[in-house]
Amino acid sequence: MASQLRKSAAKASKPAAKAKPNGKGKATAAGAAKTGALPKKTDKVGTSPSGPQLLNKDGNSRRKVLILYTGGTIGMSDVGGTLGLVPGSLLKQLQSLQELNQMKMPQCHFDEFSPILDSADMCPEDWCKIAGVIEKAYYEYDGFVVLHGTDTMAYTASALSFMLEQLAKPVVLTGSQLPFAEPLTDARQNLLGAIVFAGLADLSEVCIFFGGKLFRGNRSKKVDATSLEAFQSPNYPHLAKLGTDINIYRRRLSDPPRGRFRVHKIHVTQIVVMWVIPGFSDEFFECLLKSKSVKGVVLMLYGCGNAPARKVCFLKCLRKMVDAGIVVVACSQCSTGNVVLEKYAVGKAFSECGVISASDMTTEATVAKLAYLMSKGLSSEDCRKAMQQNLRGEMSTEMNTLHINEPMTDLSTRMS
């Protein structure tokens, strides 16, 4: 691990250029303060009463990383025979982590939520809290690490990718399957790897680092409840890999931003995810329509976008939803692949009703994107249009699909 840190730190020894609000040149404190992005020196950047704590005072790198602990297994301790969240416990453990004092490691400051949360309790209000910490500290740090529980990490990463517009610095989420204090824990490698990537000037997007791989945040899913390689990116390759060397696949990274960094809030929560299962009742969808509070529906369909063809009332209900201004987005129940509504007759009928395809987006990214667009106050029609556009690298712009009515000879020629 030490050799990996030295190699990666050599690439990260040059401080990142900090963008002005217009995205050009180096920012000044005065210029940033005019936009309200830079806090006064007397302000507390983080959420704990004492503010961020320096972890590695012996570090000699000029790059600075803020570590924000929101909660999760990584910082849990034994409380009466069960794992529980103890404020301040993780900070004490990290202060004795010798790897942070490796030559050229970024200077790390640590702060934590108050109260710290199990990720199952995370909600859009907490996403806004995380984004707010990043916004206030944006011009003081070169990168950010968000320590988070694994269960909803993909939702938070997806949400932050939309909330942090024109992001010019790395925001890396990580956590662990075992607490930091456990002897066989994955917490150390995940944390140190996240710090290394957060200290690089090459990254300008929200990522998840877990199990030795760096993923685009809004392409990620938790796919295993117990494995130390719990996350995957089903429809987009990983951005980097940590082994005996650190391999960064630069062509897969997001392009650097061209505009001023902005933070958006997400406050719309009236979104329902509905799975189509064999024998489902139309009454569930009728109830959604009658509730008057639902603004968006993520419809989990079979395969490429298939559903029962005999459910005529179901189609009528979907039409009523769309006419009522509810945005209905079709996702696949499969982790890999994409939704092509025109492939099957039922899917085509969905499209004609006004249901839109999520393409190859994850369910987590679809929910976060829909909540983000609705929070901007867009009309349902504008939301439908924007949902089908690639905003933060969350969906593929070109889908390679094979048309089933093409002759096999044509297909073999085209694929050769």
UniProtKB/TrEMBL annotation:
<dbReference type="GO" id="GO:0004067">
    <property type="term" value="F:asparaginase activity"/>
</dbReference>
<dbReference type="InterPro" id="IPR041725">
    <property type="entry name" value="L-asparaginase_I"/>
</dbReference>
<dbReference type="InterPro" id="IPR027475">
    <property type="entry name" value="Asparaginase/glutaminase_AS2"/>
</dbReference>
<feature type="domain" description="Asparaginase/glutaminase C-terminal">
    <location>
        <begin position="271"/>
        <end position="387"/>
    </location>
</feature>
<feature type="active site">
    <location>
        <position position="150"/>
    </location>
</feature>
<feature type="binding site">
    <location>
        <position position="119"/>
    </location>
    <ligand>
        <name>substrate</name>
    </ligand>
</feature>
<dbReference type="InterPro" id="IPR027474">
    <property type="entry name" value="L-asparaginase_N"/>
</dbReference>
<dbReference type="InterPro" id="IPR036152">
    <property type="entry name" value="Asp/glu_Ase-like_sf"/>
</dbReference>
<keyword id="KW-0378">Hydrolase</keyword>
<feature type="region of interest" description="Disordered">
    <location>
        <begin position="1"/>
        <end position="58"/>
    </location>
</feature>
<feature type="compositionally biased region" description="Low complexity">
    <location>
        <begin position="10"/>
        <end position="39"/>
    </location>
</feature>
<dbReference type="Pfam" id="PF00710">
    <property type="entry name" value="Asparaginase"/>
</dbReference>
<dbReference type="InterPro" id="IPR027473">
    <property type="entry name" value="L-asparaginase_C"/>
</dbReference>
<dbReference type="GO" id="GO:0009066">
    <property type="term" value="P:aspartate family amino acid metabolic process"/>
</dbReference>
<feature type="domain" description="L-asparaginase N-terminal">
    <location>
        <begin position="64"/>
        <end position="251"/>
    </location>
</feature>
<dbReference type="Pfam" id="PF17763">
    <property type="entry name" value="Asparaginase_C"/>
</dbReference>
<comment type="similarity">
    <text>Belongs to the asparaginase 1 family.</text>
</comment>
<dbReference type="InterPro" id="IPR006033">
    <property type="entry name" value="AsnA_fam"/>
</dbReference>
<dbReference type="InterPro" id="IPR040919">
    <property type="entry name" value="Asparaginase_C"/>
</dbReference>
<feature type="active site" description="O-isoaspartyl threonine intermediate">
    <location>
        <position position="73"/>
    </location>
</feature>
<dbReference type="InterPro" id="IPR006034">
    <property type="entry name" value="Asparaginase/glutaminase-like"/>
</dbReference>
<dbReference type="InterPro" id="IPR037152">
    <property type="entry name" value="L-asparaginase_N_sf"/>
</dbReference>
<protein>
    <recommendedName>
        <fullName>asparaginase</fullName>
        <ecNumber>3.5.1.1</ecNumber>
    </recommendedName>
</protein>
<feature type="binding site">
    <location>
        <begin position="150"/>
        <end position="151"/>
    </location>
    <ligand>
        <name>substrate</name>
    </ligand>
</feature>
